[in-house]
């Protein structure tokens, strides 16, 4: 896969990724519900018409990654795939309490409470549950799912055959490349990162911030 095959759709502080695959596209995460128009215009300008969108992959159940799933199901008839462990979050509209590692993340937590309306999203029922080791070839995407709990129980990564990891919030790059700033289970996060380190990963595309090389963070994790 070439880097040109990946369009980063930045919606305020969060990324979605439109990946060109064989005969169509796969969308990874969907941003905040308030950014529907931005998402739709990016899909249009990439030539991603509803029948070209083969699959929507959700890295985890947080509202800033799942905000437009209900609309994609309704308007694009898209199939939404995610890990079963996070499905209660999107089906019931739950935002998990988590340990917060940085001051900026603490401030964001407080802001979120104050601006609750801005961050709401339509609940939805996922169409497909994906599991660890699952291959995405049937969608024309040369990549594999890796279950990496820690940020949430149902967090997944998507690893392409040529070493790109779409990491969700297991990694972040807001100021510098780092591991998750919100943690549901530190033990699980540690194990997940240890597992990823053993895999053939060159470049990380985080849910927040710019892509970075695995090499730049490998020594400190
Ligand atoms: Zn996030």
Overall shape: globular
Tally of alpha and pi helices: 7
User: What is the alpha-carbon Rg in Å?
Assistant: 16 Å
Major beta sheet summary: 6 strands, mixed
Sequence of strands across the biggest β-sheet: 1-2-3-4-5-7
In the predicted model, the low-confidence regions spanning at least 5 consecutive residues are: none
Sequence of secondary-structure elements: EEEHEHHEHEHEEEEEEEHEEH
Number of self-contained structural domains: 1
Task: Describe, in plain words, how this protein is organized in 3D.
By secondary structure, the protein is α/β, with parallel strands linked by helices. The protein has a single domain (3-218), classed as Ribonuclease Z/Hydroxyacylglutathione hydrolase-like (Metallo-beta-lactamase, Chain A), CATH 3.60.15.10. 25% of the residues lie in helices and 26% in strands. The chain has 7 helices and 15 strands. Strands 1-2-3-4-5-7 form a 6-stranded mixed beta sheet. The protein has a 5-stranded mixed beta sheet with strand order 8-9-10-14-15. Strands 6-13 form a two-stranded antiparallel ribbon. The longest helix has 12 residues, at 103-114. The radius of gyration is 16 Å and the shape is globular. The protein starts with 5 loop residues before the first strand and ends with a helix. The model has no long low-confidence stretch (mean pLDDT 93). Zinc ion is lined by residues 14, 62, 64-65, 169, 207-208.
